[in-house]
Design a protein that fits this description.
With 256 residues, the protein is of the alpha/beta class. The protein is 39% helix and 18% strand. It has helices at residues 5-10, 12-15, 21-30, 42-52, 85-96, 111-119, 131-144, 173-176, 188-191, 195-214, 250-255, and strands spanning 32-36, 56-60, 101-105, 123-126, 148-154, 157-163, 223-228, 233-238. An eight-stranded mixed beta sheet has the order 3-2-1-4-5-6-7-8, with helices on both faces. It is globular and about 50 Å long.
Amino acid sequence: MELTDDLLLRYSRHILLPDVGVDGQARICDAAVLVVGAGGLGCPVVLYLGAAGVGRLLLADGDTVDLTNLQRQIGHATAAIGENKAASLARSVRAINPEIDVQPIGQALANTALLEAVAAVDLVVDASDNFATRHAVNRACVALGKPLVSGAAIGFSGQLAVFDSRLDGTPCYHCLFPDHVDEPELRCAEAGVFSPLVGIVGAMQAMEALKYLARVGEPLIGRLLLWDGLRADARVMKVPRDPACPVCGPAAFQAG
């Protein structure tokens, strides 16, 4: 993409960074990203990706804005209560950057629709709030060879990882968190979540996505970042690929 004078000015603070420069910003502007979830994590992810100039954003969420969301979901206004979250968030990011293409998808993606959305982009950000969606998104990304930025937040604790199963020895989401159908999971509606936590994790997801697209720094691939908000403590763990993983292991591809 050729950056016009207006775009050079808009993205000048990125371009001033030697690691990014004009070439890195052009790669960001040429990219397409799917963000699954337009809630607590999805809001900061989308606002930062849009402001940074990601050329095409697909936002998928079948939920509607509720009063209880507004404590942390900063992409939605009070006037948007009752509106689809993807549509509300699309309007917010367009107000920040009208230069990009934003496509809201007002439904939960599954099966063929999920595969088609993943196939249409360069990178996927999972900002959902349940294991079923995370595992479905992971399977689609592995099947189509797309990088995945995954985040989660509950209470005062968050986690972040980047997956790219095309790289030898690196895990997929299932390697870290095997899919146990009967495993209970906590959600914000039951356990609560500290408002700035989703902003911290979502901003880190956006940073990892932009690093990947601009080809700068070292992505958090093969590592899991754990954030303890009560202690302001971060830990990073190395995570290998599970050779017996039914999603990204050799057996999975032989079966396919």
